[in-house]
């Protein structure tokens, strides 16, 4: 009796240890990947400037940007300027990210439950995807104005279609056998969606989130360039016009670094959640 109960009591401890070890490993892998990516980007950046021989007045290398942000006498003011613009852009990006992802999720659920809704609305989503956003910008500005709404609409358009395709694919990848079992026992299509399709589509949902992060930032920058004149996008346009090349390069570097950081964070959360759900293989581990 004693020997038969001993393994069962030890099992939770081993499982918990493996879970915590796996989480720590995911964090370390994410940090390592981020550092490698940063190193590659910096080397390629400096190499391109050196090979092309671009004027130092126009092109700024990694060390130039670092000095402008941290070592020159006006570094504190420079950082404050970039930080203020970055916060505006991140706010606009969050609005577009949330709007696009929520609409994509609702449409994906509707498409999964009804082919008729999909046939009616998918052409509209494809139209928004196929028409360049720059061409739609004047119409969007006329309709919603130049406030936060334009960032939500333009960011949402960039996010919508890729997220929609990924989420629909994930919802429809649920096991048909389990879905049939639910149907046999009197379950509705919505029950099958809630109990089977949505849990099994977590991998696709996280893929949509990862795609949407850079998409939302791109949409926010476009809205700032073309409509609001604020944030990183507006600051870059103004700095280019005034030949403030240090500010231009610093703005581009900061928004790129933040985009990579947010993408890596989404990837880390995906790995941890899927591991917790017993779906680590879907996270590519």
Automatic annotation (TrEMBL):
Query: What membrane topology does the annotation report for this chain?
Result: Multi-pass membrane protein
Q: Primary place of residence?
A: membrane
Pfam family membership, one: BPD_transp_1
Domain ABC transmembrane type-1, residue spans? 82-266
Asked if the keyword Transport belongs to this entry, the reply reads yes
**Statement: the UniProt record of this protein carries the keyword Repressor:** no
Q: Which UniProt keywords apply?
A: Cell membrane, Membrane, Transmembrane, Transmembrane helix, Transport
One GO biological process term is: transmembrane transport
Ranges of biased composition (kind: Low complexity): 1-13
Q: Which GO terms describe its cellular component?
A: plasma membrane
Q: Which SUPFAM superfamilies match?
A: MetI-like
Its subcellular locations are: Cell membrane
PROSITE patterns in alphabetical order: ABC_TM1 (PS50928)
Write out the ranges of the annotated region (Disordered). Answer: 1-21
Q: Which domain of life is it from?
A: Bacteria
Give the stretches traversing the membrane.
Answer: 35-59, 94-114, 126-144, 150-169, 202-228, 248-269
* Family stated for the protein in its record: Belongs to the binding-protein-dependent transport system permease family.
According to UniProt, the name of this protein is ABC-type nitrate/sulfonate/bicarbonate transport system permease component
**The species this protein was found in:** Glaciihabitans tibetensis
Q: What taxonomic lineage is listed for the species of origin?
A: Bacteria, Bacillati, Actinomycetota, Actinomycetes, Micrococcales
């Amino acid at each position: 009796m004693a020997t038969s109960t001993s393994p069962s009591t030890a099992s939770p401890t081993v499982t918990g240890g493996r879970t915590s070890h796996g989480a720590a490993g995911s964090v370390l892998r994410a940090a390592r990947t981020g550092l490698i990516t940063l190193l590659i980007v910096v080397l390629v950046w400096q190499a391109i400037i050196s090979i092309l021989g671009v004027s130092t007045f126009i092109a700024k290398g990694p060390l130039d940007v670092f000095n402008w942000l941290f070592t020159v006498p006006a570094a504190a003011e420079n950082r404050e300027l970039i930080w203020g613009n970055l916060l505006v852009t991140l706010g606009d990006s969050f609005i577009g990210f949330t709007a696009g992802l929520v609409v994509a999720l609702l449409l994906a659920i509707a498409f999964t439950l009804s082919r008729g809704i999909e046939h009616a609305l998918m052409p509209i989503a494809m139209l928004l995807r196929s028409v360049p956003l720059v061409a739609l910008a004047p119409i969007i500005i006329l309709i919603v104005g130049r406030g936060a709404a334009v960032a939500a609409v333009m960011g949402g358009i960039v996010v919508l279609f890729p997220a929609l395709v990924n989420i629909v694919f994930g919802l429809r990848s649920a096991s048909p056998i389990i879905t049939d079992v639910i149907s046999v026992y009197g379950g509705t299509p919505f029950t099958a969606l809630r109990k089977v399709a949505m849990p099994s589509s977590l991998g696709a949902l996280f893929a949509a989130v990862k795609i949407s992060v850079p998409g939302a930032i791109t949409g926010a920058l476009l809205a700032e360039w073309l409509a609001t004149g604020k944030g990183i996008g507006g600051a870059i346009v103004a700095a280019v016009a005034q030949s403030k090349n240090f500010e231009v390069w610093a703005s581009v570097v900061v928004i790129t670094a933040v985009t990579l950081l947010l993408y890596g964070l989404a990837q880390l959360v995906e790995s941890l959640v899927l591991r917790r759900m017993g779906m680590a293989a879907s996270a590519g581990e």
